[in-house]
Each structure stands twice: as structure tokens, then as C-alpha cells.
Amino acid sequence: MGIVATAKVQSLDTPWQGEIQHGKHVYLTDKPESFGGKDSGPAPYDFLVASLISCTMITLRMYAKHKDIDLGLFEVEAEFHANREGEEWIERRLNFKADMDEALKQKILAICQKTPVTKTLLRSVEIKTSLV
User: Fold this and answer.
1) Pairing with 16, which of 39, 45, 97, 117 sits 20 to 30 Å away (CA)?
2) Residue 127 burial (CB < 10 Å; 0-12/13-18/19+)?
3) Contact between residue 60 and residue 74 where contact means Cβ atoms under 8 Å apart
4) DSSP-assigned letter for residue 127
């Protein structure tokens, strides 16, 4: 497998702000006002949880299509937590409008643990940094 995703960020004159580009998609990143930013865009950990929940939603929809299951409209939300002891964790919640039996609920929970971004976050990822 080759490159899965690319992104570029250009720092802006306003402290903490940057312009992120993914192909034709362009948006701002910033820090919240409580951390000295202007809150003009998501902060880095916001992107991390957004990646997880968007991958979860897409994977569940792909599974449903493959199995011809109507999941209806649903929401996935996540929070990144950290404490003073250095522990970090993500809490992910799913909310389905459609009724489903217990077997399907358990299958959905199992699939969530196997989404590509979940699997990436659960294992160690090597990051190679260079100056160009």
C-alpha cells in the first residue's frame, strides 16, 4: 500500500492559525480562545477525533450496504481525554435512530474496533520527520 492521505498546513500571521489543504479542500486550524487562539478553526485534537468518527461512520455505512442493512441516519461523536498522570483515551459514542436487535448492536460495536483509523490509533505509529 502507498500513500493513504496527504495534507499541508501554511502558518498564518495570526498566532496559532494555519491554513490546511487536502487536495481541493482548504480550511483553518487554530487554538481555542482559552489557549490564546481565536478559535477560527478546529484544533489538532479536534481533527484527530474527527478522523476517527468520520472513518467510523463511513465504515459502518459500507458494512450496512454490503450486508443490505438499513442503519438509517445515525451520529458518531468522540471526545479526547487526558489527565495529569499522562493517560490519554478517546470515548466514542454512536446514536442510531433506527431500532436494532442486540445481535446487530454487538456487531456494530465489533466493527467499530476494526475501522482503519481505530486500528491506526490502537497501534503505535512511527513518525519520520525531515527538513526539506
Assistant:
1) 117
2) exposed
3) yes
4) -
110 Cβ neighbours under 8 A, 6+ residues apart: none
Divide the 132 residues of the chain into consecutive groups of 10 and give the mean pLDDT of each group: 92 96 96 94 96 97 96 96 94 95 96 96 86 82
Cα separation, 83 vs 126, whole angstroms: 24
Distances (CA, A) of 120 to 14, 20, 48, 55, 67: 32, 22, 11, 11, 25
CATH topology of domain 43-125: GMP Synthetase; Chain A, domain 3 (3.30.300)
The reported pTM is 0.91
